[in-house]
Amino acid sequence: MGAYPAVGLKAARAARDQAKEAIAAGLDPSDEKKRSRQRATDDARNTFAALAGELADKLEREGRAATTIDKTRWLLGIANAALGDRPIADITAREVHTAIKPVEAAGKYETARRLWATMSRVFRFAVATDRADNDPTAALQGALIRPTPTPRAAITDLSGLRALYRGIDAYGGQVATRAALKLLALLAPRPGELRQARWSEFDLKERVWTIPSERMKMRRPHRIPLPTEALEILEELKPITGWAEYVFPSIRSPRRPLSENTLNVALRTMGYDKSQMTSHGFRAGFSTIANESGLWNPDAIERSLAHLDANAVRRAYARGEHWEDRVRLVEWWASQLVPDKAGST
């Protein structure tokens, strides 16, 4: 029952009576005590922070994109600040809501929903590994403020994009930043894919940039044909950054790529505010103008943007790269974007 006087006579009698009741029910009080100690040990080991760390490590082993891992760990850090030390099996829906409320109160509705979804993944992982019985985040379905979708700002008319390209050409900042903005306009990749590009991914002789699957959002390797204008930009840049791993290394450390904000800051410097244009907006401009021209197979345009077909059945059969169409498409796009160089109007 415990040592006297730490355990008093009254408490000892109560414990004795409980032990008698357990024996009468066919239970072994000694075994129950061991199980209780084991549960306490398990609770101390299986905290939310411990399970969150295991989940993040699992995503890394699965080869998820580095940006995905970084965002997941950032969101888990917010959750850990509120619930990290709590046994995951004991956490309630109210506690989850309390952890999310400060983010929502700051008006960051999209971040709040992503935090909720990321926490749900931790609880579902705990259930799947037999360390929790349920996912308390399910009770919050519909309780969070739903953010109003706001598409990224983009210039989608050809004259506006041509003017922007001329502005980039005259940009007086870092050479690598200017080259990155030009390639965003010409090739329409995702900004993260371009920022983290390695020289080893480019075959200038074959005029192709091959992005490995681990850096792609859809986890599939992606090839981008290089028009003449893109080749010239890369050839001019190679003497400047060709010694580094990254095509666009950070000015602070060559072991890191250009920062996420650098390209948008450059656009702001050129006079384009966030309601007019973003680095991601080049993709929307390319897609809009190419589709509206009526000259190109929509599938070729979608493959150029590394999009997968929304229809799962069609996606299973439509696996072609439309390579020849895409080669012609990027050459056409470059001639539209840089008409003076192409000799057109």
What are the defining features of this structure?
mainly alpha, hpI Integrase, Chain A, 3% strand, 3 domains, 3-stranded antiparallel β-sheet, elongated, 345 residues, single chain, 57% helix
Describe the overall structure.
The chain is elongated and about 95 Å long. The protein starts with 8 loop residues before the first helix and ends with a helix. 57% of the residues lie in helices and 3% in strands. The longest helix has 20 residues, at 109-128. The protein has three domains: 12-45; 48-140, Tyrosine recombinase, N-terminal domain (DNA polymerase, domain 1, Orthogonal Bundle); 158-342, hpI Integrase, Chain A (Orthogonal Bundle). A three-stranded antiparallel β-sheet has the order 1-2-3. Residues 310-319 have low confidence and may be disordered. With 345 residues, it is an all-alpha fold.
